Amino acid sequence: MGPIQPDTPTTLKSRPSKKRDRTTSRRAGGPLTEGDLLAIQQERYDRLLYTAHKQIHKQAKLVKNFLVQKEIRQKKQPQQSKQKQVDGNTSNTEAAPKIQTLKGIDLDLVTQQAIRQLGLYHSNPRLKSMASRGDDTSNEHKHKKTQDKMFQDSVPPRIEADHPSFDIVNAILTHKRFLQIMEEWNDKVTEFRQWCVELEASTEERSSEHHSIKKKRKKSVDKKGNKRNDDRQEHTQDYSDRYLHETSQDTSAMFCTLSGENEGINLDGDEDMAPKKKNRMGQRARKAKAMAIQAKQEGRSDYESLNWRAPKTSNKDGAKEDGDADYKSTRNKRTKDDGPIKTEIKESTAPEHPSWAAKQAQSTGIVAFQGKKITFT
């Protein structure tokens, strides 16, 4: 006996596309419309249905193989008595078609009945949209109603007790290994339903807030439109008057200084009122100063090697308190009138080199003539 196909099979052969319908995408900042809400829910529902069908089908296959192996082991058990052997032969002949039926069971039928028990088929957002359309008789709604009817007919029906594969399907669905995945997916379906309810509630709140904001904006345009224009005109008029007043003062001051009258009144006043700049030390200089002051207070001498020295106050004569010279001046200043500067030449008492003495003797004095004088007659 071959596998029994369901009356209206709905198998998922290919995964639905992840691309969103850009035509139903909502505008930025605006509330979700009914079409946008349905598209978002339908996209998540399709992904959930595909994943559920894939995982439940895989688990049903494992349970089916386990049941087939169990039947084969029972067939190969040794018989203890002849009576049992006779009974065993009859049971073996009955077990062979049962194994064939298990091997040929349609796993899609098991998967569809499991998803139906979870209630995932009836959580489809299209069923809600069918009830919300009402009795509209337009052509567009008639077309949608025909599509909804086709979709409703495609939902697999519940198998009855007189179905040939009812016992095998029920054995797989009630197996302890299969019940684990049913519990997991029961939680996931519950989460999906809660998410749909929260999404619809938040959409209603956003739409009501959006409509109230629109009404307030329309009223504010009628009441405050003229007032805002008046404020802008006053602001521009004040700015233009202030700008003209400032330019007139500046030109009068310029002509006064060019003519020579009241010279220096504005400029000197501006210079006196201008704040003087302070040369603030850098971070490293401040740190070196603090370390040097601390070292000096503690009596250590290593502060002199740091990059800071205490300022030296000068006396009336110009000499420093510490007795150091003023390194800033390029020439030494004379504090007293000592007259002309006297230059003293010190005679050297060190012995001279022989070559130096011979050279000096040749260059000093007139040498006397020591030869013979020849006269010509």
From TrEMBL:
Tell me the ranges covered by the Bud22 domain, including all copies: 268-376
> What are the alphabetically sorted keywords of the record?
Coiled coil
Compositional bias (Basic and acidic residues) spans?
222-244, 314-350
Q: Where is this region: Disordered?
A: 1-35, 73-97, 125-152, 201-244, 264-363
NAD listed as a keyword: no
Q: Does the keyword Secreted apply?
A: no
Q: Mind telling me which Pfam families this protein's record contains?
A: BUD22
Q: Where is the composition biased (Basic residues)?
A: 212-221, 276-289
Q: Which domain of life is it from?
A: Eukaryota
Q: Which GO terms describe its cellular component?
A: 90S preribosome; nucleus
Which InterPro entries does the UniProt entry name for this protein? Bud22/SRFB1, Bud22_dom
UniProt GO BP: maturation of SSU-rRNA
Q: Which PANTHER family match?
A: SERUM RESPONSE FACTOR-BINDING, SERUM RESPONSE FACTOR-BINDING PROTEIN 1
For this entry, the protein name equals BUD22 domain containing protein
Q: Which species is the source of this protein?
A: Nitzschia inconspicua
Q: What is the lineage of its organism?
A: Eukaryota, Sar, Stramenopiles, Ochrophyta, Bacillariophyta
